[in-house]
Amino acid sequence: MTETVSYPILSIVTFFPLIGVLIIILLKNDRAVRYTAVFTTVMNLLISIPIFTNFDKSSSSFQFVEFYNWIPAINAYYKVGVDGISILFVLLTLIISILCVAVSWSAIQETVKLFYSMILIMETAMIGVFCAMDLLLFYVFYEAMLIPMFLLIGIWGSANRIYASVKFVLFTFAGSVLMLIGIISLYFMAGKTFDVVELSKVKLPLEFQYWLFFAFFAAFAVKVPMFPFHTWLPDAHTEAPTAGSVILAGILLKIGGYGFVRFSIPFCPDATLSLKLFMQVLSLVAIIYGAFVTLMQTDFKRLIAYSSVSHMGFVTLGIFSLNTSAMQGGILQMINHGIVTGALFMCIGVIYERTHTRELIKYGGLGKAVPIFVLFYTFFSAASIGFPGTNSFIGEFLIMLGAFKSSFYIGTPLILGIALGATYMIWLYYRVVLNEVKPEIKEHLHDLNLREVLMFIPLVFLVLLIGFQPSIPLSFIDTSIKHLLDSLLNPVNLTMK
Fold this sequence. Notes:
By secondary structure, the protein is mainly alpha-helical. The protein has helices spanning about 10-25, 30-55, 85-105, 110-130, 135-145, 145-155, 160-190, 195-200, 205-225, 230-240, 240-265, 270-275, 275-295, 300-320, 325-355, 365-370, 370-385, 390-405, 410-435, 440, 450-470, 470-490; strands at about 65-70, 75-80, 200-205, 495.
């Protein structure tokens, strides 16, 4: 732990939501369950504040490190810490968890106790993923997300929820099994340790690096999701309750990109450099293909889901362009996508609560019927397009800068991807907001209430904060990115195996 924080703050923040679960189990009143969930998530954000105020931005090392024996026989430890790459994801998880509780306030009326317990368990697992410094501990938290998410989709989802939840589990589980084999192989190959810092210092044979890269790729490419492993995402997003979609868009997809940065690149530096073009091309295919498929959608939620495939292609392109500005943009764009697409799924959730339809043909004229809703929807749509002054503009600009620096032929197709992104969002806006209100939904439309307005305001603030002051989030990640790229491009002090 750092000298400024003398207590195990990361463990407290990670496991505090489970205290909320224990209290919820004892409650019998649904209203009390909801208040307990919101109190737990808000308190956890407040408890975490010293992590961000005491974080040393000039250091690339892990901070607030906690280290306890877990399974000494196999050198597995409970070891957690945060660096510049993980700290913003912890913050995003804390904020998204509060919003998931708020957006479900009136939408979830059945088995309320179980629903909010799953949200809080998810919060613990997601924070654990970003804090784990032991590879086996990371895998435990990674797998711990699977069951709560499966239940969120399978119990509180829409008509085809069972199909979507099973598909989500099969895709994720298949990828994670290959990752587990990779972890075990790495454990024996690197001197029987799961310590992420120690593993990063090991120079592995190139053939093993290729095998390990693709073992991890199987898990993280599904999670992002990258083309052609994306087919579970539209079904899961479409059938999930609003909170499930927000968690998927806000956090779960980011774990794939985080995994590439945290594990694939440092553990397999030579393989990463050799496969750079392959990963860039896959990312470009995801951007262009995802955008064209998005244009064809007729379901409000499915359209935003497919747009995530395109947006996350920008992220992986930024990561695997392997230069400072592109990787800054890639990591920042993961945060931005979590904020903006999470907000768009919340918009769909609140309007679906009123109309009970996601078919775009039944929408139109919302600008006249629900002006406050449209005010927020317009703002987040502009942010999704990457309008100057919003957070996505900064992320996409950095990625484009880095992509052109990597290769003219890699950067040029991005222009088409950005143009297509603007096209499908404007086309969607035209169908939903403009024209006349459709009679099928007219009588059900009423504008946002105070709770709904309050849950959008923090996201508006974050979009503008990153849009106008990008140096604030970038100051957290700069040092760690430079250290990662320096280790990749100028390897020294590596132990040969």
